[in-house]
Structure formats: structure tokens, C-alpha cells
Design a protein that fits this description.
Bound molecules: 4-(N,N-dimethylamino)cinnamoyl-COA
Distance between the termini: 32 Å
Mean pLDDT: 96
Number of strands: 10
Low-confidence stretches: none
Order of helices and strands: EEHEEHEEHEEHHEHEHHHH
Number of domains: 2
Number of helices: 10
Shape: globular
CATH class of the largest domain: Alpha Beta
CATH superfamily of the largest domain: 2-enoyl-CoA Hydratase, Chain A, domain 1
Structural class: alpha/beta
CATH architecture of the largest domain: Alpha-Beta Complex
Strand content: 15-25%
């Protein structure tokens, strides 16, 4: 197991904990590649996986950005390559077939917020602070942060946050829809959300994730695609179990568990 990324599992929830508290959990290459390894193949060893939580070790930071100490000697090609490899990892989170929830305590800045925005939901604590301060370093976000922030909070607020470097406090981030919830115990809140997710059909969940991502792909007719998925699911074993449970007035057993 990587020392910079702890992986633990309990009751179908895998938690990935970024473990670089002395650097406020800044995302160095090793953290990014360890996260990439999990979402490309590492998850397969967890057979009854329902959801993945990503968090940072300690109370001070989810992640205070990409690791700035790794930037200073990069040439243009290396920087572009770093950005492209990071984007691939973050895209694999966004397109993961199970829900991925960022549990944010303290700072989620720069690459850290970009990681959180690649997740399907974000739960912050009351001290959460979210921003993209890259322009203060003379950079722009390198992991699709401009795109995801604009999708989440709209162009006017996203552009203002980018060009001023403003950090949103937890309440403003909640109001804007950057955070789904804020809670004194964000980990407990995330687990509560997963307990609701568990009641639903896993294939339908994966399709809902796929459909909401497809909206942002130009040239894909999501409306038509939704109808096709709807048709496919209608004749699936999962839907048969869902209908059967409703008609028999019992709980659906989608995961073959007694
Ligand atoms: N990288 C490396 N170390 C960091 C860090 C970071 N992003 N953030 C904090 N640290 C380290 C500090 O250097 C300090 O280390 P020591 O001095 O103790 O050795 C330790 O963490 C504690 O930080 P502070 O002493 O600064 O703690 P404070 O409470 O005083 O301040 C802070 C907390 C979050 C306000 C402050 O640490 C801060 O401003 N941090 C930097 C935040 C930031 O600018 N983040 C954005 C990073 S840029 C791209 C790919 C990705 C990106 C861009 C391009 N391409 C490939 C093109 C993304 C860029 C970013 O994310």
C-alpha cells in the first residue's frame, strides 16, 4: 500500500485518505498515480463495493493543491504531460461506475478542489474553504478545474473566483452548489448518504452517473441516449427485482444479500 494514500474498506465503502498532512495533503505525483491505480484496477479486489470516499488526513486540509514544490523545474512538455496524466485520473473518477464522494475538512484548493470536483458529490465540514488560487502562481488550473467549476457554479461566479483567487467559505460553497452539504461530521454525513444509495439498483446508479456526465459531451444526444438506457433497464434483472419488490411490498434485494 502507498504511504501517501491510505486505503480502507468497511461495509462496502472504500475510503481513500490522502496522507501528507505536513504538506496539507498537497497532491504530488505519487498521490495522483496512487489514486489513478485505484480507479483503473485497484477497486476490483473489493467485491461488494457500493461507494468510494476520498478525504485528506487530519482536520486542516482535504488537499491544499497540487504540490507546488514539483513545479519549479518542469519544462513546457513535462507540464503539459503532467496535466494530461492528471486529467486522465480525474476523468476516471468522474466516470467511475460507483458514486465517489469527496469528504472535505478544511482547505480544498487548486488541484485539491479539482480532485473534489471530479467526484460525484462533495461534503464539507464547517471550516471547509474552497478555491482555485492558481492564478496567484501565474498558472491556470491544470486538471479541468475551470470547466468543472463553471459547470457547478456558473460562469460568472467561476470566473470571478478564478481571477480574484477568492476562497469560498463552507456556507457560500454550499449556497453556490459547490458543496452538496456541510456538516460538523462530514464523514458521518457521507456514510449516511451511502446508506441511502445502497437501497438502489447498482446498474441504474451507474447509468445515472453516465447520463449526467454525458450531458457535457458535445455531439451526444443525451435525451435520446436516456431513452435507450431506459429501454435497456426496463428488461433487466435489476428492474424485475425492483418491480417485484414493489408489488410484493418488500424491500428490493439488488445486491444478492439476505
Ligand atoms: N504544495 C506544497 N506544499 C504546500 C502546499 C502546496 N500546494 N500548500 C501548503 N504546503 C505546505 C507549506 O509549504 C508548509 O510547509 P512547511 O513550510 O511547513 O514545510 C505546510 O504545507 C503548511 O502550510 P502553511 O504553513 O502555509 O499553512 P498555513 O495555515 O499558514 O496556510 C494555506 C495554509 C493553504 C493558506 C497555504 O498553505 C497556501 O496558500 N498553500 C498553497 C495553496 C495554493 O496555492 N494551492 C494551489 C496550488 S497550485 C497543472 C496541474 C495542476 C495545477 C496547475 C497546473 N498543470 C500540470 C499544468 C494545479 C495547481 C495548483 O493546485
Amino acid at each position: 500500500m502507498s504511504e501517501v494514500l491510505f486505503i480502507s474498506e468497511s461495509e462496502g465503502i472504500v475510503t481513500l485518505t490522502i496522507n501528507r498532512p505536513k504538506a496539507l495533503n498537497a497532491l504530488n505525483k505519487e498521490v495522483i498515480s496512487s489514486i489513478g491505480d485505484f480507479f483503473s484496477s485497484g477497486y476490483k479486489k473489493y467485491t461488494n463495493l457500493v461507494a468510494v470516499l476520498i478525504t485528506g488526513y487530519g482536520d486542516k486540509a482535504f488537499a491544499a493543491g497540487a504540490d507546488i514544490t514539483e513545479f519549479k523545474d518542469l519544462n513546457k512538455e513535462q507540464a503539459t504531460d503532467l496535466s494530461l496524466r492528471g486529467k486522465k485520473v480525474f476523468d476516471s473518477i468522474e466516470n467511475f461506475h460507483l458514486p465517489v464522494i469527496a469528504v472535505i475538512k478544511g482547505y480544498a484548493l487548486g488541484g485539491g478542489l479539482e480532485l473534489a470536483m471530479a467526484c460525484h458529490m462533495r461534503i464539507g465540514d464547517l471550516q471547509a474553504k474552497c478555491g482555485l488560487p492558481e492564478l496567484s502562481l501565474g498558472l491556470v488550473p491544470g486538471y479541468s478545474g475551470t470547466i468543472r467549476l463553471t459547470h457547478l457554479i456558473g460562469k460568472a461566479k467561476a470566473l470571478e473566483a478564478l481571477i480574484t483567487g477568492h476562497m469560498f467559505n463552507s456556507e457560500d460553497a454550499l449556497r453556490l452548489g459547490l458543496l452538496n452539504h456541510i456538516d460538523e461530521s462530514p464523514m458521518e454525513r457521507a456514510k449516511h448518504i451511502v446508506s441511502k444509495i445502497k437501497r438502489n439498483g447498482p446498474i441504474a446508479i451507474s447509468k445515472a452517473i453516465e447520463l449526467t456526465n454525458t450531458i457535457y459531451i458535445p455531439d451526444v444526444d443525451t435525451d435520446n441516449y436516456e431513452s435507450q438506457i431506459f429501454g435497456e433497464l426496463m428488461v433487466s434483472e435489476e428492474a424485475k427485482e425492483g418491480f417485484g419488490a414493489f408489488l410484493e411490498k418488500r424491500k428490493a434485494n439488488f445486491r444478492n444479500k439476505n
